[in-house]
Amino acid sequence: MIRNLLRKIVPEFLLKAYHYCLAFLGALFYGFPSKKLIVVGITGTSGKSTVAELTSFILEKSGNKTASMSSVRFKIGDKEEENKLKMTMPGRFKIQKFLKQAVNEGCKFAVSEVTSEGIKQFRHKFIKFDIAVLTNLTPEHIESHGGFENYREAKSELFRACKNIHIINLDDENADYFWKIPAKNKIGFSRNEFDEVLPERMNMPGEFNKYNALAAVKTAVTLGVSLQDCRELLQEFGGIEGRMETIIEKPFKAIVDYAHTPEQLEKAYETINSKNLICVFGSCGGGRDKRKRPVLGRIAAKYCQKIILTNEDPYDEDPVQILSMIKSGVFDSRFPKADFYEIPNRREAIKKALSLAEADDIVIITGKGSEPWMCLANGKKIPWKDGKIVKEELSK
Q: Are residues 249 and 226 in the same domain?
């Protein structure tokens, strides 16, 4: 709320100068700690957290003391804390402090998600990135950036800042754009390498997770881990909280996932591949990516047997308006009204989904994943965990 107010009353060049100065002062205060680490920056629309967690896991299990920073947690060696900031990439001073602590704890590597919103505020500045990784790129944060080209340009800033090694998903339609950015070494990965590089069994379902695993392997091999060790460690990795996480196995299955873009939602539904899906979802408020709301509705209508629309961080936007935009997409697809429910209270929506589920059904709750807060109007936040709510409601 305060950030939006500042954007309205403060000239853009002054805001940029402010953010840039904060980045410099943070790095200066903590002594430019990234110079003493090998830093991996991971960007893209989807998969950043999974690639960051996987890469960190492989490096650690291979005997390297590692720090990692993601939307899920902050981890330095054996010490970790949940990321409760509702912000994937924290402020400049916190980032530099984190890197300084990593140096003090004797870490060799630091792995970090890098977001377009963070780049807009120069949070990536004065960090020496040794490797930049691109997972994929699809339209997201379009209103904030003023168009897809601006969003892509923001993502590319990580690669322009990193002069050493670029690791790029060659199957992404924007791969050429990123490949043209100068670097000492460029490494590509694609679907053709799935069978050659990845083990037959992983604890992460879906083709999109194969891409995530491949990105992590390419990064770890570049940093000195053998391919064989990577393959073995991928089989040990237990998955990430809130990312295609199975909360209940019986009497029916319930899954929580972070999918909040049309591309992510469709991939999640396709991965489950069931005709008995009961789908709980909404869309983030505050004027964020309104264009995707009817699209989310149409995708749900295509894959779900029953749909339950609910709140998903409405912020200061009218929740009824958010849900009506999603609903327009649902009913554009002639979805049966008898199988549609609109329940703004997210706990009640989850409760309803569980009550509707029978033995062969799968309840999938998307949009928040492992996020610890529900963000409401006037800056109010309430503690929240989709997985925890599912367990609580089932126990009742």
A: no
Residue 296: what residue type?
Answer: L
Domain with 95, as residue range(s), is 2-236
Q: Nearest CA to 44 among 171, 165, 226, 197?
A: 171
Mean local confidence (pLDDT), 295-314: 96
- The answer, yes or no, to whether residue 141 has pLDDT greater than 90, is no
Query: Which amino acid type is present at position 7?
Result: R
Query: pTM of the full predicted structure?
Result: 0.90
Tally of domains in the chain:
2
Instruction: Name 329's Cβ contacts closer than 8 Å, sequence gap at least 6.
Output: 293, 294, 295, 296, 297, 298, 299, 300, 301
User: Residue 150: which CATH number?
Assistant: 3.40.1190.10
**Residue in 322, 326, 339 with CA at minimum distance from that of residue 299:** 326
Last residue of a domain, one of 236, 262, 279: 236
**Sign, CA torsion 356/388/342/253:** negative
Q: Which two tokens stand for residue 200?
A: 């037959």
Q: Do 249 and 382 have their domain in common?
A: yes
| pLDDT category of residue 109 using cuts at 50, 70 and 90 | very high
Alpha-carbon span 171 to 177, nearest angstrom: 12
Domain boundary among 183, 201, 236: 236
User: What tens digit of pLDDT does each residue of 257-272 get?
Assistant: 999 999 999 999 999 9
Q: Are residues 211 and 277 in the same domain?
A: no
Whether residues 159 and 41 share a domain: the answer is yes
pLDDT in tens, 205-233: 999 999 999 999 999 999 999 999 999 99
| Angle, helices 207-222/227-236, rounded to nearest 10 degrees | 140
Please provide residue 110's backbone torsions phi and psi, each rounded to the nearest 5 degrees.
-135, 125
**pLDDT for residue 1:** 46
CB-based contacts of 333-336 (< 8 A; 24+ apart in sequence): 333/297, 333/298, 333/301, 333/302, 334/301, 335/300, 335/301, 335/307
Domain CATH for 358? 3.90.190.20
CA dihedral 144, 146, 147, 149 (to 10 degrees): -100
